[in-house]
Amino acid sequence: MTTTATGAAAYAPDRGETGLQEQRARAAFWFLAPMLLMLFFVAAWPLLRSIWFSFTDTTLNNLYGGEWAGFQNYLTWRELPSGRIRWGGTLADPAWWNAVYNTVRFAVISVGLETLFGLLIALMLNAEFKGRGIVRAAILIPWAIPTIVSARMWGWMLNDQFGIINHMLLSVGLIDSPIAWTARADTAMIAVIVVDVWKTTPFMALLILAGLQMIPRDMYESARIDGIHPVRVFFRVTLPLLKPAIMVAVIFRLLDALRIFDLIYVLTPNSSATKTMSIVARENMIDFNRFAYGSAQSTLLFAIIFLFVTLYIWLGRVDLTGEGRR
Amino acid sequence: MTARAIFWNTMFYIAVAIVVVVAVFPFYYAVLTSFKTGTAIFRVTYLPDFGNLNWGNYQSVLSGRNFPRSVANSVFIATVTVIAALLLAVTASYALSRVRFRGRGLLLMTILAVSMFPQIAVLAGLFELINFLGLYNTPWALILSYTIFTLPFTVWVLTTFMRDLPVEIEEAAIVDGASPWVIITKVFMPLLWPALVTTGLLAFIGAWNEFLFALTFTITETQRTVPVAIALLSGASQQEIPWGPIMAASVIVTVPLIVLVLVFQRKIVAGLTAGGVKG
Which of A10, A288, B20, B38: disulfide with A138, CB 3.0–4.6 Å? Predict the structure, then answer.
């Protein structure tokens, strides 16, 4: 793909054809306008409205009757007659902090495992062996299955009484009695992570594989001739060259993991051990009729993700657009 | 081969076998379960009993009034979403990939950001918008809201595809006096259709699988999409989860996807990586 980089450079507008350039720029504007208008309509405007709602006392059945409430949904305090201060709002809500903890824990552990397994599978697929095509097709299957379906499938496999996982573990003797994986507070998160890792490792593997295939083969060749141990080659050559690909794959996955909703909603419903920020925000907004309060939580999630991405791109110098290389 | 090489070769193939089994087994087991009814479902088996395939679950799911309706809803919504996204994205990505203008990098970043940001952050605002437009509990509510992730995604991937088309073709067209519109429709479209198929397919899968908006913006059973229908499929009582029909429904909606993905394997991998790794 690097070979095309010269194309855009040769196309630089400094050729004195200003009239043509102007015409093209004008056309570009009209070509972009419908898309931008649509994105404003479905993304920017709803986002601004959600943030606005978070500063009001709007309810679900009276969307237009909300009044400005300041930071009431975020943090309030009231001095009780006894002199004690009572805190209110999301930032003083233990359920919210539990959700933050769950989300971060889930995102870090599952993306960490996916990166590790993804790297291993990518290395496997980068080797030449009989049946590589079959493996490649097989790992695409978890990726192709809808999240809700995989949540249901695994929910059945992890079933406490009739699940095949308990059956397997019992017959091997790893456990003495069946475990209610999705219901127990101490195993629910494990169940969610297992399913997520199963479902998204293929994506990670394919992205890392694409990075691997861009490493010139002659590098390995010369390392082999110099008699360098393969493990050393991996840590000194492969991994550093793969770093940009891994950095991009990790951020894509982290953003996805931080907003997780569907898997947890179906696999471990109403378990406070797995409720994430998206789950509690929607619960408040729609189910508990605390529309403005839920909006405050969703705004906080947005702010957290925004901050995180900015930091990641800034610190990691990740070039997501591919513009810098042109 | 030395003994050492044989050992490592064997280890490698064992690892390969584990990867394949782990990847495929859950779906295989869902298919197995979908052919069992009654108490047979509670007996764990590892191999299919071909002499005794029971289509009961499929019959009950497909003869029910709501599930076929959900499938039809999903097909309609995903198709319209994809067509709308592709129409808007082709011209936009031409401008983004081929015309140099100020702020292009920033615009690209913004588009990428929109496709990545948490859907929950716009839920309240979209809920209001959809109610305002009177679309609540209609397919159009979902078509509108799915644009938020399909449109940036298609623009992004098509832009990376178009950047890789040779400039000479376009330059020749410019020399011949072709306008940008002619360049897009007459010069680029024929070259671009494989990319359109790939992006369209990926966007289709995205729309087909979406859950949060589908759950929030529909209320009646007849308006549900497939993921919501499967998530909320319940039995006669709360305690009794109808695993057989759930697995049958899951298999029905997953088999077409798996077939599509396997048929378009190479293209899909190319599309996915175009969204991520460019270098």
Answer: B20
Q: Which residue has the tokens 């994809």?
A: B82
**B277:A13 CB<8 A:** no
Residues 6+ apart with CB under 8 A from A193: A106, A109, A110, A113
B104-116 helix and A239-258 helix, angle to the nearest 10 degrees: 60
Q: How far apart are CA B38 and CA B56, in angstroms?
A: 10
Are B126 and A46 within 8 A, CB to CB?
Answer: yes
* CA distance to partner chain A, nearest, from residue B51 (Å): 22
Each residue's pLDDT tens digit, B171-184:
888 888 888 788 88
Backbone angles phi and psi of B233, in degrees to 5: -60, 120
| Chain B residues close to A286, C-beta within 8 Å | 216
Mean local confidence (pLDDT), A47-70: 90
Q: Which chain A residues are Cβ-neighbours of B152 within 8 angstroms?
A: 39
All structural domains of chain A, each given as residue ranges with its CATH number in brackets, are 100-288 (1.10.3720.10)
What whole-number distance in Å separates Cα of residue B95 and Cα of residue B107?
11
Q: Do B19 and A323 touch (CB under 8 A)?
A: no
pLDDT in tens, B44-69: 888 887 777 888 899 989 988 889 99
Look at residue A9 and tell me whether its pLDDT is greater than 90: no
Cβ separation A43–B114 shorter than 8 A:
yes
- Closest chain A residue by Cα to residue B260: A144
Nearest to A200 by CA among B120, B209, B55: B209
Write the pLDDT tens digit of every residue in A299-325.
Answer: 999 999 989 888 887 887 766 655 544
Contacts of residue A34 in chain B, CB cutoff 8 Å? 88, 91-92
Tell me whether A305 touches chain B (CB under 8 Å): yes
**Comparison of pLDDT for A64 and B145, the residue scoring more:** B145
- Residue A233 backbone dihedrals phi, psi, to 5 degrees: -60, -40
Kindly state the DSSP code that residue A3 receives in the 8-state scheme.
G
- Domains belonging to chain B, first-starting first, are 3-54 (no CATH), 65-275 (1.10.3720.10)
Buried b (16+ CB within 10 A) or exposed e, B107-126: bbeebbbbbbbbbbbbbbbb
Residues B215, B94: contact at Cβ < 8 Å? no
Name chain B contacts of A144, Cβ cutoff 8 Å.
205, 254, 257-258, 260-261
Q: 3-class SS at A203? A: helix
